[in-house]
Design a protein that fits this description.
344 residues; alpha/beta; 6-stranded mixed β-sheet; 46% helix; globular
């Protein structure tokens, strides 16, 4: 009886192994040193491209709506690919990838992410971060665990400080160029100054034809949960730690271009990893003339049946402005799902 039971167990194990997909453990690094990080940015990036507007903040009010479903279906420790500015930090905080790549056609956005990297490293907690981002002196009663609403309410009554802004910008450039030894040009320095002083000028009310920054940080999913990277101490610390380990890599690249996405795909294949989530926003709206290049690039990314796009549309209702779509289905058909009536 014991022999038969043992044989039955062995047979069951072999059956499970036969039908279950097998993938070797990835060999993604636990951190990059500064030279490897900068080499990845320099070698993988394409020339600066054109976009219709200078957006330095997100303009997607319902970007958190897809997170509960993703948090259930995407295991921590994967790979995240995204586009655009700070909304990526919220997706990263929620999904807990091992490494993240931010690919945007604008060099300005790559530089903005380097600015953010320096700000995270310079700011021990969320209250410090908000104060340094907007060049405002920290109110004395804020703590590392203050609710995000309290943080922004406290800073709303503090004026931006031009001397502090100059001091902070000097600290940002010093951290990037002297501490990390990133080879930024004089033109890069000037662009960083322009971007940083937009945040100084507008404060938490800065926006890109959508909700302002403070409103975005206080948004919630449809069940009332706030997933933003500034919503909690844990969320902030998770993103800060990734920045400290050089694990959020901003790249300049056209989604239909000849190099950047293909190099990301090759890097993932070299390390036996897959792209779990690709936040594409509404970039596809601008790719009608280069659709073949876009679909060919996506096909080079290692994925599995659970890999998901996060898409966004200006034209859907409040419940459908952000939605999920299967990357493997897209690779097979080359067709983007139309804006759904409700979230799937």
């Amino acid at each position: 009886m014991r022999i038969k039971t043992g044989l039955a167990i062995i047979a069951t194990i072999f059956l499970v192994l036969a039908v279950a997909p097998f993938r070797a453990a990835d060999t993604l690094p636990a951190r990059f040193d500064d030279s490897a990080f900068w080499k990845m940015i320099s070698d993988s990036s394409e020339p600066d491209g054109h976009f219709t507007a200078d957006f330095y903040t997100s303009n997607e009010p319902a970007y958190q709506a897809v997170i509960p479903q993703l948090a259930k279906s995407v295991a921590p420790g994967g790979v995240y690919v995204g586009v655009g500015p700070e909304q990526n930090f919220t997706y990263i905080a929620a999904l807990r990838p091992k490494i993240a790549f931010i690919v945007d056609i604008r060099r300005d956005i790559m530089l903005e992410h380097l600015m953010y990297k320096a700000l995270f490293e310079m700011s021990a907690d969320r209250a410090d971060f908000v104060g340094t981002l907007f060049s405002r002196k920290r109110p004395a009663d804020l703590t590392a665990d203050s609710p995000v609403q309290t943080i922004f309410q406290a800073y709303a009554s503090v004026r931006s400080d031009s001397e502090l802004a100059e001091q902070n910008l000097k600290g940002i450039l010093g951290r990037l160029k002297t501490v990390h030894r990133f080879a930024l040009s004089d033109s890069d320095d000037a662009i960083l100054r322009t971007i940083y002083f937009e945040f100084f000028r507008w404060g938490p009310q800065i926006s890109s034809e959508g909700p302002n920054y403070s409103a975005l940080m206080m948004r919630t999913d449809t069940d009332g949960r706030n997933w933003s990277f500034l919503a909690s101490r844990d969320n902030y610390d998770r993103v800060r730690t990734m920045h400290e380990k050089n694990l959020i890599a901003p790249l300049v690249g056209d989604f239909a271009g000849p190099k950047t996405l293909r190099m990301v795909g090759q890097y993932l294949r070299d390390h036996a990893a897959i792209a779990n989530v690709f936040y594409v926003s509404n970039v596809e709206d601008y790719l009608s003339r280069s659709w073949t290049g876009w679909t060919a690039n996506v096909a080079t990314l290692p994925i599995d049946s659970s890999s998901q796009f996060i898409r966004w549309s200006l034209y859907g209702g409040p419940s459908s402005s952000n939605w999920l779509d299967s990357i493997s289905d897209f690779v097979r058909t080359g067709i983007r799902q139309q804006v759904p009536g409700v979230l799937r």
